[in-house]
Amino acid sequence: MTYGPGSLGQAGEAGVLREVFAALGDPVSPDVLVGPGDDTALLRVRRGAVLATTDTMVRGRDWLDEWSSATDVGIKVVTQNLADLASMGGVGTGLLVSLVADPGLPLAWARELTAAIGGAAGRSGVPVLGGDLSSAPSGVVMVSVTALGELGDGVTRPVLRAGARAGDLLAVSGQLGRSGTGWLLLRQGVLSARSDPEAVALEHHRRPVTDLQRGPEAARAGATAMLDVSDGLVRDADRLARASLVRLELDDDALRSMATALVPAADLADAVTQVLSGGEEHELLATFPPGCVPDGWTVIGRTADADAVDADARQGPGVWLDGDKLDPAQGGWDHFGG
Amino acid sequence: MTYGPGSLGQAGEAGVLREVFAALGDPVSPDVLVGPGDDTALLRVRRGAVLATTDTMVRGRDWLDEWSSATDVGIKVVTQNLADLASMGGVGTGLLVSLVADPGLPLAWARELTAAIGGAAGRSGVPVLGGDLSSAPSGVVMVSVTALGELGDGVTRPVLRAGARAGDLLAVSGQLGRSGTGWLLLRQGVLSARSDPEAVALEHHRRPVTDLQRGPEAARAGATAMLDVSDGLVRDADRLARASLVRLELDDDALRSMATALVPAADLADAVTQVLSGGEEHELLATFPPGCVPDGWTVIGRTADADAVDADARQGPGVWLDGDKLDPAQGGWDHFGG
């Protein structure tokens, strides 16, 4: 089989490794004892344990080429992974990058992707340790990142989803609903912003950037539970509530004021929906004892005792708003749309 | 969109996580400080550094459903990753598993896959730390594993590709050509073995199993360079030769006797070709100082000084057989068929 000029297939594996993976840059950290080019990487671990997570983006499911550039995809896949580390109170120490692609994919697209991944990782001080390259059937492009990390300075244990206690405050590290609103705009054919809120929404959907320091900061401040908002506030808060066996009561006013900031990128009703259910926000959601919420976090609710521990019970752990228990299946992103 | 009964799409994300990822089993290692179900895993690291590698299998490229069961795929993807760790002198300490699949994929297939991954990992004493689930366009099924590890007992430093010295012996941990011969048989429509050599070849192609202890054993014995044979002997030996700036001279008699063991699964000429170029063998290839080759390894060549360090020169580093320099592009597997 032959492939067109400038495609991965024409360059061959060695050419792709040389031209595309080189764009990831050489790891500069002294903790990378063995970097790309051997069978595995070897990374120094300073604190006795390593955090590990993985996230994948698939063309046609997680992005559309009409809406997102290779740079957008590269930045987003790095943020997705590093936000997972941050939500444990961790910081990144290394990435592995896998590209699985149709050999007809333009080399230029792949090079832009890996340059963006290398750039985003580098800005966060995280070296790329290595990767893998596989060919895929026609049309398929998939990028998968594994992030390794350690607990941040002064963080003595990971912050889990379980751990919230009755009386804690629920807070978020930044504005919610941006990515969801950006996605709504793209679905409406708005590819270029006509207002500042549209610009913010489109940018955060295409290439979300989270302040990763917020994770270790929350851990040091005494966060009792934490995760990052990847599948929507209600769905992710419900996970935290069920893991902690508590009831989370959202504050209508706080959420409404977040929604207001999104107007006119969306009308208020849609903006509220996106604050509640927009996925891929990658801001951190955490519970704190009263008086412990760090500056810059927004309190959006509180924790109460679940009346029963049966996760399916009407009165059991879950997320509540204005006296109603919210159904996570009605507000969030399900990868298999069940 | 609706999906058929028994598909991933019908089960929905929570159902898939419950029914498919549960088959991976709970990690039983005391070193798993945080296991599946949180934003990241947390794994204890006892020796100050972690090995990390990743490998992906894609339906239609790395396997065909007509030839390989879900169990085959699960075993193979685990071996691929753990052999990479072994080839550094390491042992596995944890796996992350990503499944990226068409929502129309039968749950039963996915469950068989993850059960096989959990089983293969468990037999090697390696816990599954977590994973990721993503949907993909119609027809796509891809499984990606990241393996973490540490240097084995008594191994003080990783064995790299660079490090072979003139005068070393080149040895392999097991029989080569089995997987390649199995692939030839499948291409010829032979799905069931008619002789013991065919059974060995088909089995090793579908579900290769490598003695992972051979890696740390080689490291302790003083191996100067090592990798696993994933893309074919000539291609992988060439990588070792170039990284070490040496010339590897293969021993015709040793290779011919390996080929003979494959007859009648292949005729002798095809068997020689598969010994030289068959990929996915996952046996370990290493150089040792004379007198240091461990029992059970087969010496298949020796190392000589490269006459020049220019990698492109006729007399530079590379692989030689019977006075001829072998072209790695002519003997091995290129993921992008360039």
List the helices and strands and how they pair.
The structure is a homodimer of 338-residue chains.
Chain A: H1 8-19, E1 32-34, E2 41-44, E3 49-58, H2 70-86, E4 90-101, H3 107-123, E5 128-135, E6 141-151, E7 169-172, H4 178-187, H5 196-206, H6 214-221, E8 225-228, H7 233-244, E9 246-250, H8 252-260, H9 268-277, E10 284-288, E11 298-305, E12 318-321, E13 324-325
Helix pairs in contact in A: 2-3, 4-5, 4-9, 8-9
Keywords (chains A, B): ATP-binding, Kinase, Magnesium, Metal-binding, Nucleotide-binding, Thiamine biosynthesis, Transferase
Pfam family, one (chains A, B): AIRS
Function (chains A, B): Catalyzes the ATP-dependent phosphorylation of thiamine-monophosphate (TMP) to form thiamine-pyrophosphate (TPP), the active form of vitamin B1.
Task: Summarize this structure as a short list of keywords or feature phrases.
homodimer, 338 residues, alpha+beta, 60s Ribosomal Protein L30, Chain: A, 2 domains, seven-stranded mixed sheet, PurM-like_N_sf (chains A, B), ATP-binding (chains A, B), magnesium (chains A, B), PurM-like_N (chains A, B), EC 2.7.4.16 (chains A, B)
